[in-house]
Amino acid sequence: MHDFIKMMRQYASPYKPYLAGAVVLNILSAIFNIFSFAVIVPLLNILFKLDSVQYSFIPWGTEGMRFKDILVNNAYWLVSDFSAQHGAVTALLLLCAVMILFTALKTSCYFGSAAVMIPIRTGIVKDVRNRIYNKILALPIGFFSQERKGDIIARMSGDVAEVETSITASIEMLIKDPILILFYFGILLFMSPEMMLVILLFVPAFVWVMGVIGKQLKRQSLEAQTLWSDTMSQVEETLGGLRIIKAFNAEKKMSERFEGVTDRMRRKVNRVNTRQASAHPVSEFLGTVMIMAVLGFGGWLIIRGKGLFGSSFMDASQFIFFMIILYSVIEPIKELSRATYGIPKGLASMERINRILEAENPIQEPENPQEISDFQDKIVFRNVSFSYDGGRRVLDGIDLEIPRGKMIAIVGESGAGKSTLVDLIPRFYDATEGSISIDGKNVKDLRVKDLRALMGNVNQDPILFNDSIFNNIAFGVDGATEEEVIAAAKIANAHDFILEKEEGYQTNIGDRGTKLSGGQRQRLSIARAILKNPPILILDEATASLDTESERLVQDALDRLMSTRTTIAIAHRLSTIKNADEIVVLHEGKVVERGRHEDLIALDGYYKKLNDMQAL
Questions:
Q1: Burial letters for 207-220: b for 16+ Cβ neighbours within 10 Å, e otherwise?
Q2: Is the dihedral of CA 545, 546, 552, 553 positive or negative?
Q3: How many CB atoms lie within 10 A of CB 359?
Q4: CB 494, CB 520: distance < 8 Å
Q5: Four-residue CA torsion sign, 291, 297, 298, 300
């Protein structure tokens, strides 16, 4: 229950007015419900002439009489006096009208409390989803190299849906049912303390049964949601690798693999739902046993003619009212037990969600950040080393200066640390050792937003969004005009092919730009970088996967983009960086050579070897 309270403090705080309204409306509903049942007593007396006693008004506070006895007597006197003056039929009709009135008030309050809970339920679910999404945006790239995309999608979809159905749906019951139980038990205790003792003997049994049934629900639900994540991960993998699956005729293999995951999830969900389904019949049985015990005990007291402590016992109509209230209290107890069983399922999902929400972000903002708005001098690496999770060093003792306005190329075999090196500059990762500074300011002392505002990225695999061409080019630049977007597209050699599209700049390019060719996608990403107009440009093998014609167009666009900027280019094709101001050669995380193209060729070292291999 501690985890549930913690979650409610986190997410229900903005909705306190709604919660207060729900409490008030449920209290009124309980009061009106009790009054509507109370009308049954005089109705029975009038219909079946169960009471032949002549009542007279007893002043309130009469010495030697209990408040309860005075209240009951005066209520009977009021009804019998009205019946004597206006007739039994008129009194009966009036009581029926009163019961209808109280029932209308009760149901109105109940509807109001249910309506008030809707914004709480939907609001909490919205807030959870927004927190997950914003946390995904805030977490560093390294976090997602250790997490499967399908698992994260499953937490955003399946786990949040489970929180909605198991926890937020239980909030209404957790507010309404305790209020009803409290009021009903209060009336039962007021009417007969000795019969209330019998009822209380069964309360520990209810609590024990709820504990036994719900004990393993959280663990089993956690396992079921993990299997749901496996399912979503396989769907994500299948969509990403559909071309290979079909090319290798592996449909049957993938289908059998998916069926295995879904079958394991089905068996686990069956166990969870079976355990949860047992709650209703067990609580129904215990409730029936309790009612029969009270009925037998109360019947014995009625036959006996007095209570256990020698006081007068209730009459037949009062006893029927007592049993109606007792039977009414069974339903909120059962609903409360269902909420108690449902909450562990939701908490299991919340635990998986919290693995994202509570994940530590190693990229911390400085407490007193230094200001930076432009790039004036140079980028400096000082003895920079980096390793993932404390393992093998991907970079080892890098010393490097990148002057403003120069083009620096980073080359080396796969796994040499090229991408990691450039990822340290915008703080996608933080260096394990050493420091990186821009214009003499350590990047860790700058606001991340200000730091990244200085840089534009063009990657080997262009990242585009399922949106229009215009919005993809204008991405990251607030308030970009049509003229500015078109100008950027022209510089990137993209304007002509855009105009060939039926809807021009408003053409939707599909998921990740699938409606465009590789060269077209790359030119859009270059146009996006041109529009941002950053002083520092990072190119990550921007032409590596293009055909000759596309490479020529893209390289021409890149040359225009690089002409007035400091450029750091990761190069796979060495022919594209022959004119670089300096080429830095990485091998196993270390700088082994550096210089211009001609100088490195003359050195007859590692770079010459790479160049000769490509020449072949």
A1: eebbeebbeebbeb
A2: negative
A3: 15
A4: yes
A5: positive
Which residues lie below 8 Å from residue 570, measured CB to CB, with a gap of 6+? 409, 410, 411, 418, 419, 422, 539, 540, 541
- In angstroms, the CA 454 to CA 374 distance is 7
Burial call 521-546: b when 16+ CB within 10 Å, e when fewer: bbbbbbbbbbbbebbbbbbbbbbeeb
What is the CB neighbour count within 10 angstroms for residue 90? 12
Return the DSSP state at 14: G
Q: Which residues contact 442 (CB under 8 A, 6 or more apart)?
A: 435, 436
Please calculate the CA angle 124-127-133 and round it to the nearest 5 degrees.
145
Could you identify the residue written with the tokens 């209703």?
280
Phi, psi (rounded to 5 degrees) for 512: 60, 25
CA distance 48 to 88: 11
Element holding 459 (H helix, E strand): strand 455-459
Q: Where are the beta strands (DSSP E) in 260-392?
A: 378-387
Q: 355, 425, 358, 417: which is closest to 388 by C-alpha?
A: 417
250/470 Cα distance (integer angstroms)? 39
What is the distance between the alpha carbons of residues 425 and 477, in angstroms, rounded to a whole number?
Answer: 21
Orientation angle between helical segments 67-86 and 88-138, nearest 10 degrees: 130
> What's the sign of the alpha-carbon dihedral 451, 457, 463, 469?
positive
Beta bridge partners of 538: 457, 568
Supply the Cα-derived Rg of the chain in whole angstroms: 38
Q: Which two tokens stand for residue 288?
A: 């029936």
Q: Are 357 and 139 in contact (CB under 8 A)?
A: no
Segment-wise mean pLDDT, segments of 10 residues, the chain, 616 residues: 73 86 91 82 64 69 70 72 77 82 90 88 86 85 74 78 76 84 86 81 71 62 70 76 76 85 82 72 76 82 68 72 83 74 74 83 88 91 88 88 91 86 90 92 92 86 87 87 90 88 90 84 86 87 66 74 82 80 90 90 88 74
Residue type present at position 601: I
Contacts with 614 (C-beta within 8 Å, 6 or more apart), sequence order: 573, 574, 575
